[in-house]
């Protein structure tokens, strides 16, 4: 018998809390979540960490996202104009977000005429403490605003004694309006567009100041299309070497996930794009997923914002702690 939604949410919340507390040297930081100008502002020990922007845009997103030393870890454009060194491409790449290019045949990734949106429906929870929490419900809409499905997005925020900050980003997708088909597309699911200083190459295709590594040991541009438990991008921002990693939870679809990880700074944990990542060797529908009516699929990721490079930040160890939390 399927679990009731309230029981499922409780179990997910409990697992996430265990995962949050499993980081070595966990800090007892004070996280506050307050509503400011139609956004939810998240602060850690009185310093801005991020804001959840969930109204008046084609889909919710997190911006700014500030790491160690209050370094901006994601690109500002198109949310903020005039930041030096930023390339004005892909206006739908808003900091940290989620979406899918093929939802029952509709594009909920890019924007404009003929595209769908992810619309905020209800704010379920916004609370602070040692771990900050935001829970929101959304409708995924087609271009004529027909409801294709729904999700419950849960975001948790915290810090550790090493000066690192983290965001647990969870999406529970529900086929609430009939059978749901999520297609094999290169642009899908949880994503970030990093600060230009973390790019491997710049817009002129010259070597940038950033570096990247995944759990399989592949580096820089070689990350694209590969399966890995985590990826990490780092580089110099405001005189400090800082980085941002994404962890793929072992319970996720097709773990370890494949990555749409570009050298110009787009990083997407995408378990759907198997045809694209195989460069056409697999069938066009190889990554397609069907969720039966009223069934759900749960996706869990962690963004880990750290000092130093992947080795000095012990990203492999931090991932292991996240992945095994609750096993003992």
What does this structure look like?
- The chain is mainly β and 328 residues long.
- The chain has one domain (5-73, 96-324): Beta-galactosidase, Chain A, domain 5 (Distorted Sandwich), CATH 2.70.98.
- It is built from 3 helices and 19 strands.
- It has helices spanning 5-21, 274-277, 315-324, and strands spanning 31-36, 39-44, 47-53, 61-65, 96-103, 106-108, 117-127, 132-141, 147-159, 165-174, 180-182, 188-193, 211-214, 230-237, 240-248, 259-261, 266-269, 289-291, 296-307.
- Strands 1, 2, 3, 4, 5, 6, 12, 16 and 17 form a 9-stranded antiparallel sheet that branches. The protein has an 8-stranded antiparallel sheet with strand order 7-8-9-10-19-15-14-13, covered by helices on one side. It has a two-stranded antiparallel sheet with strand order 11-18.
- The longest helix is centred in the first third of the chain and has 17 residues, at 5-21.
- The radius of gyration is 18 Å and the shape is globular.
- The two termini are 27 Å apart.
- Mean pLDDT is 92; it is low at 21-25.
């Amino acid at each position: 018998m399927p679990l009731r939604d309230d029981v499922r949410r409780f179990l997910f919340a409990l697992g996430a809390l265990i995962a949050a507390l499993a980081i070595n040297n966990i800090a007892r930081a004070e996280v506050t979540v307050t509503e400011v100008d139609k956004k939810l502002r998240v602060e850690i020990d009185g310093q801005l960490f991020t804001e959840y922007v969930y109204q008046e845009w084609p889909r919710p997103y997190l911006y700014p996202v500030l790491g160690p030393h209050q370094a901006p870890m994601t690109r500002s454009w198109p949310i903020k104009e005039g930041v030096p060194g930023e390339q004005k491409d892909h206006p739908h790449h808003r900091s940290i977000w989620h979406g899918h290019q093929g939802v029952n045949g509709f594009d909920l990734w890019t924007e404009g005429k003929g595209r769908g949106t992810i619309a905020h429906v209800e704010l379920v929870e916004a609370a602070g403490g040692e771990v900050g929490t935001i829970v929101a419900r959304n409708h995924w809409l087609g271009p004529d605003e027909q409801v294709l499905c729904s999700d419950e997005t849960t975001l948790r925020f915290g810090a550790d004694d090493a000066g690192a900050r983290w965001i647990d980003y969870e999406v529970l997708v529900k086929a609430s309006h009939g059978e749901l088909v999520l297609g094999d597309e290169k642009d899908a699911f949880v994503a970030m567009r990093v600060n230009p200083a973390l790019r491997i190459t710049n817009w002129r295709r010259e070597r940038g100041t950033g570096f990247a590594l995944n759990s399989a040991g592949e580096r820089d541009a070689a990350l694209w299309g590969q399966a890995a438990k985590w990826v990490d991008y780092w580089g110099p921002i405001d005189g400090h070497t800082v980085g941002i990693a994404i962890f793929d939870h072992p319970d996720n679809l097709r773990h370890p996930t494949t990555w749409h990880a570009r050298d110009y700074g787009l990083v997407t944990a995408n378990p759907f794009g198997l045809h694209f990542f195989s460069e056409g060797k697999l069938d066009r529908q190889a990554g397609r997923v069907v969720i039966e009516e009223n069934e759900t699929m749960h996706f869990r990721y962690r963004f880990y914002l750290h000092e130093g490079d992947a080795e000095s930040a012990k990203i492999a160890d931090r991932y292991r702690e996240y992945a095994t939390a609750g096993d003992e």
